[in-house]
Amino acid sequence: MNTFEIILTLAERFGLMVGLVLLFLTIMPVRRMQFTGESSRLRTFLVTVLFGLLGILGTYTGNAVFDSVANLRAMVVISGGLFGGPVVGIGAGLIAGVHRILFDLHGFSAYPCGIATAIEGFAAGMVALRFGVGAMNWRAAAGLAFAGEAMHMGLVLLMSKPFPEAWELVKLIAPPMLLVNAFGAALFVEVINLYSRDRDRRESLHAQIILDIANMAVSYLRLGLSLETAAATAEIIYTRVGVAAVAITDTRDVLAHVGAGADHHTAGREIRTNATREVLRTDRPAFLHSAEAIGCNDPACPMTAAIIVPLKKNNEIVGTLKFYGSRERPLNVTLFEVAIGLANLFSTQVELEDIQIKEQMLAHAEIRRLHSQINPHFLFNSLNTIASFCRTNSERARELLMDLSLYMRRNLDLSRGFIPLGEELEQVRSYLAIEKARFGDRIQVEDEVEEGCENWPIPPLIIQPLVENAIRHGVLGRERGGTVKVRAWRENGHLEISVADDGVGMDRATLDRVLNPDCVDSAVGGIGMRNCLSRMEHIYGRQFAPKVDSVPGKGTTIVLQVPARH
Predict the structure, then answer these.
(1) Residues 414, 463: contact at Cβ < 8 Å?
(2) What is the CATH number of the domain that holds 113?
(3) DSSP H helix total and E strand total for the chain
């Protein structure tokens, strides 16, 4: 056999090996391994065995030449080392090399061939360890294969006896093995890269679909699983995924069914399919490929395949998400992955319902706590003031009673979610009217509200405690009193609210104590001030934390920023 015939034989076997690798990747996808130790030991072991077996197969791809064999082992173990790192490289090299030695295939060059194979795998693994994913390129693979096979030929000359036969062997097989292994390793690595890029593209498409659907359905799912939210969510999925039907259930009934089969899979009625009951029982996603496996009790049901994934809340099953396929719209593994991804996201959103409820309960409890702090002392002082006016100015007493009545009536209804700015300002004006009656000219009030801001939704009981703090701990700290200014305006798409006084102000240490979440509001800095500031930060995030500026002897200014709510 001459050199050209050896090259043709190796090229033919190379094509067969690439076909087998592609078939394997299709049947059992192997993700690109990371070189940071994050891959599981089992995965590393399986990939090592895979490339080791392919290396053994590479031994059998050549023909006997001078009691030796031209082969493609280097191409495989070098690709394995670049793909999986030192463990895979040396492991695959040892598997293929030891096989070559133990079975002593075709005589005198067994030991140098086996040793060279192990060294090639280890060298490729070390390159992968040094350069990471960047080592998986055709130039590195071709260079390593060429250098490795040159080393291989050198070992054959050094270790094989008799030397004349070793020399004749190397002269004949060196050119084809250098050429085919270098070219083959480069092409082999590019085949793996091509598959990986295709898989990354498909996973990116899956993620895009999942995030698009989740983004549109999130506002419904945060309200929990109900007939209305399930119907809206199922409709969103159905229009974007392209399956025969989409259904959502709880643990007993169908909540929504959009698409084929809606005539008998009716929302609000009991689950009809045995497969759904089985998924609810076992907590395992199911991919069913026949109508019999689905188990619908309607003989005319058009469903021929189904994907059923459990939905959970706090690790408990609360329902299922189902994709149905028909002969016209079959299901596939990609849709199965999409369904699992959506179910995971939906489960998280459903859990947020409980969190939102708890937050609302805490917010309402906090407002009630503020009421318990504000109402007793304020009501006592207000009634004393009104009683004094009853003897001297009955008309003024009547007006103050109206202000107090308005103030208390709004207090009773402040535990609801958000209120218009105008309502909060009316609350503030009622409070100020009573306080001005108590303290006379010592309290001056100015308010300036930009037109159109009155309907802006804000959390209740946010401004009034700040105004009270400005009066009690600001302007009344001066013998002559002072002025409290309340302003509201729009800026950069947000509502800006400012409460400022020209009272005694605070030094840095006092201000730090006021802003400390562990301090007691009534002991330092006034009732509700710290509470209002922390509530704003909690509701809108740290980027909307209120700004407080205070200078001893000059006063304090607090600025709230309220984003728009849609």
Answers:
(1) no
(2) 1.10.1760
(3) 16, 14
Claim to verify: residue 376 and residue 495 sit in the same structural domain: yes
Structure tokens at 444: 């001056």
Helix (H) or strand (E) holding 539: helix 529-540
Q: pLDDT digits over 412-437, tens only?
A: 555 556 889 998 898 888 888 888 88
Rounded to whole angstroms, how far apart are CA atoms 131 and 125? 10
Number of domains in the chain: 3
pTM of this structure:
0.43
What's the order of all strands across the beta sheet hosting 286-288?
254-259, 245-249, 316-325, 305-313, 286-288
Q: Where are the alpha helices (DSSP H) in 103-162?
A: 110-131, 138-159
Task: Write the DSSP string, 167-205.
Answer: HHHHHHHHHHHHHHHHHHHHHHHHHHHHHHHHHHHHHHH
Say if residue 193 is in the same domain as residue 226: no
To which H or E segment does residue 5 belong? helix 3-27
Q: Does position 200 have pLDDT exceeding 70, yes or no? A: no
Virtual torsion, Cα 403, 406, 411, 416, nearest 10 deg: -140
Q: Could you report how far apart the first and last alpha carbons of the chain are, in Å?
A: 80
> Could you tell me which residues come within 8 angstroms of residue 476 by beta carbon, excluding any fewer than 6 positions away?
439, 442, 443, 503
Query: How much of the chain, in percent, has pLDDT values that exceed 90?
Result: 15
Q: Are 51 and 79 in contact (CB under 8 A)?
A: yes
Whether 221 and 244 have beta carbons less than 8 Å apart is answered as no
Report if residue 343 sits inside a domain: no
Give the burial class of 353: count Cβ atoms within 10 A of its Cβ; 0-12 exposed, 13-18 middle, 19 or more buried: middle
C-alpha–C-alpha distance, residues 156 and 169, integer Å: 9
What DSSP character marks residue 270?
A: B
What's residue 257's pLDDT? 93
For strand 443-449 and strand 482-491, is the pairing parallel, antiparallel, or unpaired?
parallel
* Residues, the chain: 566
Is 190 in the same domain as 240? no
- In a shared domain, residues 143 and 42: yes
Beta bridge partners of 254: 249
Provide CB contacts within 8 A for 401, sequence distance 6+.
386
The pLDDT tens digits for 312-326 are: 877 788 899 999 999
Task: Work out the mean pLDDT of the chain and round it to a whole number.
Answer: 79
Question: What's the pLDDT score for residue 418?
Answer: 82
Q: How far apart are CA 319 and CA 256, in angstroms?
A: 11
Residues 191, 256 within the same domain: no
Q: State the pairing for strand pair 555-563/494-501.
A: antiparallel
Whether residue 299 is found in the same domain as residue 381: no
Residue-wise pLDDT tens digits, 156-183: 888 877 888 778 777 877 887 788 888 8
CB–CB of 261/302 below 8 Å? yes
Sort residue 306 into left (φ over 0), alpha (ψ -120 to 50) or beta.
Answer: beta
Q: Which long-range contacts (CB under 8 A, 24 or more apart) does 251-257 make?
A: 251/280, 251/317, 251/318, 251/319, 255/225, 255/226, 255/227, 255/230, 255/231, 255/319, 256/227, 256/230, 256/231
pLDDT band at 309 (very low <50, low <70, confident <90, very high): very high
**520 three-class SS:** coil
Domain that holds residue 537: 356-563
